[in-house]
């Protein structure tokens, strides 16, 4: 399981991503709050991340990086809109986590084939397995 610092890093990265369009919408906040609860992070600590970022820690394993990419993908689609800036930023974040560019591109291109652009976890995993080194 992730350490407390890693959990704060996950949330901080997600908050920064939600701010890419300069405004965190209510559905995005609720989604982020749900992730914080899932990670076991107190709401006061979570809310504090909006004013002070946590140290960035890249997830250690590929599975953790894929999970974080999926969280970010879900966050991007929670408000049912995807702006080009968000898609580019998500792509860049996936690359910075060391995920295969071809897998990232494939996920971003097929997401529109699913209801609410939610790529099922098993499809996401299959795509990343295909490009696994």
Describe this structure as you would to a colleague.
By secondary structure, this protein is an all-alpha fold. The chain has one domain. Helix content is 63%, strand content 0%. The chain has helices at residues 4-18, 26-39, 43-48, 62-77, 84-96, 101-110, 121-130. Helix 1 (4-18) packs antiparallel against helix 2 (26-39), helix 1 (4-18) packs parallel to helix 4 and helix 6 (101-110) runs antiparallel to helix 7. The mean pLDDT is 93.
Write the SSE topology:
Blueprint: H1 4-18, H2 26-39, H3 43-48, H4 62-77, H5 84-96, H6 101-110, H7 121-130
Helix pairs in contact: 1-2, 1-4, 4-5, 5-6, 6-7
Defining traits:
mainly alpha; 133 residues; 7 helices
Arithmetic mean pLDDT? 93
Total strand segments: 0
Share of helical residues = 55-70%
- Fraction of residues in β-strands: under 5%
Q: In the residues, how many domains can be counted?
A: 1
Number of helices: 7
3D shape:
globular
- Unreliable segments (pLDDT under 50, ≥5 consecutive)? none
How would you sum up the major sheet?
none
Written as H for each helix and E for each strand, in order along the chain, the element string is HHHHHHH
Radius of gyration: 14 Å
Structural class: mainly alpha
Distance between the termini: 24 Å
Summary?
The protein is an all-alpha fold and 133 residues long. Helix content is 63%, strand content 0%.
